[in-house]
Design a protein that fits this description.
mainly beta; four-stranded antiparallel β-sheet; 8 strands; elongated; 142 residues
């Protein structure tokens, strides 16, 4: 288990609990009306999706960078994406989407069979800062 402040705010905290096959994550703001954490969202680890790449340098670095708090998913484009869960996500919604995470890396195998990682693109108009502000002010996003 771990807790950490969100980006840009010491008033919004993310809590992450780990089980064998998933992480459970929720947020708490000092501005929440109720002083309880109402629910956790389940984020499947899906580590099996990168099993064949575990010994490759990029995976070792990303595992280290995320302090082993990471999950893997397939994107809409069919690529693998590694999400660093230490800073939480930008939503409390139960459905896990590829754009929800602050730090996310697209993983692609090059022509030599070596996995490469590129930071996932972020659209400036995606409302991330507004979402962080609203959640910090106590508005739930579920």
């Amino acid at each position: 288990c771990m807790t950490s402040p969100s980006l840009f705010s010491n008033y919004l905290w993310s809590g992450t609990a780990e089980t064998e096959d998933a992480f459970y994550q929720s947020t708490y703001s000092f501005n929440d009306k109720e002083q309880i954490i109402p629910s956790f969202r389940k984020i499947p680890k899906n580590h099996v999706l990168i099993k064949k790449y575990e010994d490759q340098r990029v995976i070792r670095i990303l595992k280290w960078f995320s302090n082993n708090y990471y999950a893997i998913m397939k994107t809409k484009a069919g690529d693998l994406q590694l999400m660093d869960l230490r800073f939480g996500s930008m939503t409390d919604k139960a459905e896990v989407k590829e754009e929800d995470f602050v730090f996310r890396f697209i993983l692609k195998e090059n022509e030599n069979g070596v996995l490469e990682a590129h930071e996932g693109e972020r659209v400036r108009e995606d409302g991330i800062f507004e979402a962080i502000y609203k959640r910090t002010m106590g508005e739930r996003m579920d």
